[in-house]
Amino acid sequence: MKEACGVFGIFNYSADSPAKSVYYGLFALQHRGQESAGVAASDGNDITSHKGMGLVNQVFNEESISRLKGNIAVGHVRYSTTGSSVIENAQPIVIDTRYGRIALSHNGNLINAAALRHDLKDKGISFVGTSDSEIMAAMIATSKKENFEDAIVDTLKHCKGAFSLALMTKDKLIAIRDPNGIRPLSIGKLEKGYIISSETCALDIIGAEFLRDVANGEMVVIDKDGLRSRTWAMEDRESICVFEYIYFARPDSVLRGRNVYEARFQMGKYLAKEHPVEADMVMGVPESGVPAAMGFAAESKIPYEEGLIKNRYIGRTFIQPSQEIRDLGVRLKLNPIRDAVRGKKVIVIDDSIIRGTTSRKIVRLIREAGAREVHMRISSPPNLNPCYYGIDTATRAELIASNLSIEGIRKYIEADSLGYLSLKSLVKSISLPSKNLCLACLNGEYPVRIPERLQSLKLFFK
Q1: Phi and psi for 231 in degrees, rounded to 5?
Q2: How far is the CA of 407 from the CAs of 367, 400, 415, in angstroms?
Q3: What are phi and psi of 228, to 5 degrees?
Q4: Which of 17, 62, 150, 237 is deepest in the core (most CB within 10 A)?
């Protein structure tokens, strides 16, 4: 499972170029997207940008960063959900409008992107890439509203789905969240400026103080006069994606006042209460399974030990592995510590099971390393439904929990036992009311109605 992307922006009142700060912020958000990266900066007169395919440190160097002058900058790391993985879809999207040049970075997914694109094409608008982010930029550019901020609101009211935006003009930085607040977006304060970021961990890396989250349906405008807020849409229900807490967000981030690490730790504790098993050690699947594994160990009083080592440099590679290595799949990323697991009854904690193929490979790896028993515990409920809001998940036909019972899944992944966290305990772990979480992938209750055309498609957002 992969997230759509991460956005980062800075407005710095001093004359220093903020592009390097955006570069470091994108490093902190690299886990949200590894296909492309980009930064755009404004010097007050013009917007310049640099973007490319690959990881942040593959796209940028000292020279490319130094060319991005100005006191405002926005950045983006991307994984494609709508639109293919090509340079034309890399962000920020920079486009000329009658309001001046703008740069737009988008995290999320529009469920009505096809209809919006069709309408724009009928009006004679052409597109460079295939992303829904370019659609939003084109809609702003062609708005008939006289005021730029009104043009943004006019555009947003036609957009359905999930979107957290970092948008820049030559003299403004703008943060926007969709009416349901499905994707996270935070505001930070510097001594001489403001930051907007998909996660608070990126504020920490440049020494910014967390100010607050952007509210659902809110547009925050930052310019030379400071920060001001405008509510452009009002929804009764905020619905932040539950998988931000389960998997996507870094454990050192804080979402809606809840530390992600602590939420995952509590998931592990509840999991131990719901699905106890006698064993010699508890281990987590790196990285997102580790906090839950530590919580499971603390509650069960079974020792926590590292049993798998992750290759932290796997990232995005432009050299395809040999067929033999490709067939081994997970071995590129994970390797067992044989002396740690040999002869033991092992409890393996992971955050989710999507298709089941990775879990089966992990179980086999641990058995081959000498484990006597392998018990799989999952720190979320069964994933039953596809996501339409910016996560690359399978169709129902490919989601193993939609097609097999828990016992059937256990047999498929070849574990000695299998247990999932209950939905009730998951919500307790996050410490937010269930009405404020998007749980659609777990219970089928989508906060934004999904068009029947999308529901009938065989593949989503490939």
Answers
A1: -85, 115
A2: 19, 12, 10
A3: -140, 155
A4: 17
Measured between alpha carbons, how far is 179 from 163 in angstroms, rounded to an integer?
Answer: 9
Same-domain status, 175 and 299 = no
Same domain for 279 and 387, yes or no, is yes
Greater confidence, 85 or 351? 351
CA 122, CA 326: separation in Å to the nearest integer?
44
Least confident of 47-56, 75-84, 222-231: 75-84
Q: What is the DSSP letter of 302?
A: P
Return all residues near 452 (Cβ < 8 A) that are at least 6 apart. Answer: none
- Rounded CA-CA distance 214/183 in Å is 10
Q: Centre a 10 Å sphere on the Cβ of residue 202 and count the other Cβ atoms it contains.
A: 30
Find out whether 251 and 260 touch, Cβ atoms under 8 Å: yes
Does the residue 72 lie in any domain? Answer: yes
Question: Cα-atom radius of gyration of the chain, to the nearest Å?
Answer: 22
Give the total residue count for the chain: 462
Q: Which residues are catalytic?
A: 5
Residue 285 within a domain? yes
**446 in a domain, yes or no?**
no
Q: In the chain, how many H helices and how many E strands?
A: 17, 25
pTM: 0.92
> What is the rounded average pLDDT of the residues 66-73?
95
* Mean pLDDT computed over 115-129: 91
User: Residue 101: what pLDDT?
Assistant: 96
Same domain, residue pair 214 and 142: yes
Whether 231 and 288 map to the same domain: the answer is: no
Taken in order 313, 315, 320, 325, the sign of the CA dihedral is positive
pLDDT at 213 over 80: yes
Question: Where in the sequence is the domain holding 139, given as residue range(s)?
Answer: 2-238
Q: Judge if 263 and 234 occupy the same domain.
A: no
- Please say whether the dihedral angle defined by the alpha carbons of residues 23, 28, 32 and 35, taken in this order, is positive or negative: positive
- Sequence-separated contacts (24+) of 48-54 with Cβ below 8 Å: 49/92, 49/94, 49/103, 51/76, 51/87, 51/90, 51/91, 51/92, 52/87, 52/90, 53/85, 53/86, 53/87, 53/90, 54/316, 54/318
Query: What is the residue whose two structure tokens read 């109605």?
Result: 449
Cα(390)–Cα(110) distance, integer angstroms: 8
Residue 76 three-state SS = strand
The alpha carbon dihedral of 18, 24, 29, 33 has a sign of positive
Q: What six digits make up the tokens of 64?
A: 């490319």
